[in-house]
Amino acid sequence: MKMTDVLREELMILSPKATTKEAILDEMVRKLVDTGAVDDFDTFREAIAEREKSMSTGLGDGIAMPHAKNKAVKQTSVVFAKHPTGIDFDSLDGQPARLFFMIAAKDSANETHLSILSNLSKLLMNNDFIQALDAANTPQSVTAVINLAEASLEQDQPQTSVPADKNNQADQPYIIAVTACPTGIAHTYMAEDALKKTAQEMGVNIKVETHGSDGVKNHLTADDIERADGVIVAVGKNVPMARFNGKPTVERPVADGIKKSKELINEVLSGEAPVYRASRSDQEKDSATNDDQDVNPFSLKSIYNNLMNGVSSMLPFVIAGGIILAIAFMLERLLGSDSGTFLGIKQVGEAAFNLLIPVLSGYIAMSIGGKPAMVSGFTAGALAFSANAGFLGGIMAGFLAGYVTLLIINLLKNMPKSLSGIRTILFYPILTLFVTGLLMYFVFGPIFANINIAMINVLENLGTGNKVLLGATLGAMMATDMGGPINKAAYAFSIGIYNDTGDGSLMAAVMVGGMIPPLAIALATMIFRNKFTKVQQESALTNIVLGLSFITEGAIPFAAADPIRVIVSSMIGSAIGGGLTQLWLTSVPAPHGGLFTIIPLGENRLLLFLSIIIGTLISTFILGLWKKPLEEQIVSEQLS
Fold this sequence. Notes:
Layout: E1 12-13, H1 21-34, H2 41-54, E2 58-60, E3 63-64, E4 67-70, E5 77-87, E6 97-106, H3 111-123, H4 127-135, H5 139-156, E7 174-180, H6 187-202, E8 205-212, E9 215-217, H7 222-227, E10 230-235, E11 249-252, H8 254-259, H9 261-269, H10 280-289, H11 300-335, H12 339-342, H13 345-354, H14 356-369, H15 374-386, H16 390-411, H17 423-460, H18 464-480, H19 485-501, H20 505-527, H21 534-538, H22 540-548, H23 556-561, H24 563-583, H25 595-601, H26 605-626, H27 630-639
Parallel strand pairs: 1-5, 3-6, 4-6, 7-8, 7-10, 10-11
Antiparallel strand pairs: 2-3, 5-6, 8-9
Helix pairs in contact: 1-2, 3-6, 11-13, 11-14, 11-19, 14-15, 14-16, 15-16, 15-17, 16-17, 18-19, 18-20, 18-24, 19-20, 20-22, 20-24, 20-26, 24-26
Keywords: Cell membrane, Membrane, Phosphoprotein, Phosphotransferase system, Sugar transport, Transferase, Transmembrane, Transmembrane helix, Transport
Domain PTS EIIB type-2: 175-270
GO molecular function: carbohydrate:proton symporter activity; protein-N(PI)-phosphohistidine-fructose phosphotransferase system transporter activity; protein-phosphocysteine-sugar phosphotransferase activity
């Protein structure tokens, strides 16, 4: 496919009537509609307007590149408009725009389309190309300019990465960069091209990772980051950042990567760029997105990250569906056994819960194999659900779909270029679904259904002592990292048992275990005031509210400041509280809500309260007695 297949002569406006930004955008969208490339003017025009709100697509030097990827687009296309005097377009350099390229990409735009659009973006960084377009006065001459530029594009491209051995070019610095814009169509690649050209002119080695509509390209490996003298992050959306911890990093809008590439490179090389410090949220986002395509997908780290991606994606369904089910249970207690069903509330909550295993499987698969694994991942999860294979079966389904997808992608990597455009929309989903579906239906579904039944039978027949030990373990896990992966693992395990059996006893253990840390910290700040700062004391009320709501994360700032004392004291209290819930046969038939669920729905509510109170008091006094007075803490910090 050639560039002129999307930038067709019928889509060229060489004498526009518009004299304002809004009018030229209207005129270009109307051209898309009139030629059949877009079937809904208002829908696509709104998408263009939203894109302009996030950042003007007036690139400067007389060029504007409005673009959107939208369901109204029926044929990926580019409108070219040329205004003789220019129009005020809120451009980055404040100058009028005279050359306009409106990109309309289909929601399902394939790799070929996206590659062409990225090439067009890069050509717009070439002054010779712009001058030739300025001189072209007919659709035929514009087509000739584009064809000539496309033919020479590959040989004009700068290197995309540095040589394997940086030591061989010790006199040249090495920097790495990430570029991304909200739609991933235009600015992403223009910033990439500008940074590479500027680096080449300055004698700097550079590797640029792009986050575009076609996925992550030129991925930065751990070795790239280790060797780099600094990092440029020129983005208009979130990208994984924790990997840059400890590296000099310049963070700017993606537009600066296009227009201020030399300034960004100089800032990195000056030694004055700030050192990036990754936060906990950065690390969690990185593990959830799992963009590290160069990591061995079978390594323990990758397996763990892929599992956490599935669990994290599933939790919103658990929380929202669980609270709605809790409302249905409350109505049934107050108004009669069929009231929740009659009002439709119970069905809504159950519908969300029925999606737990497919969502878990689907996002594990996508974490491994990307979007090509989506169909087989969600379908395999649905098969696990229908086979009663439980959460273990859902986890197996996700990993199976992900690894089958990687296998299929590898087998088809040498397909003829003429077929490459339909790989992602035809071959990948059909082949991965066929292989994964049959394996799940005939082999792994039945195997994990039997494992699930056996596990449930074991749990139902546990003696009191073993139940107490299990409850204490789950409670302690909830307090270990307070919303992190260990906390999520305990929560997911209890959700699985609750979803399979309807037994909320283990939900009581994790809920109590998760409520105790913030409650104990709040109480400690009130009782042992001389051991906490004024700011910490003022957070007491906030932590009480968070603790009563079963939001463990309120304890994180305290754990970060004093990890050993806070985490150990919290784990001890949460373990005791979780164990007591099993000793006293308590239960919570809903997966979230804290006190607001326990009050109306908890079984043996008074004993549940007592479990919380005992665990909280134990954690409070361990922490309060263990911490040094504030004056001693300050002296210790000064000496260290």
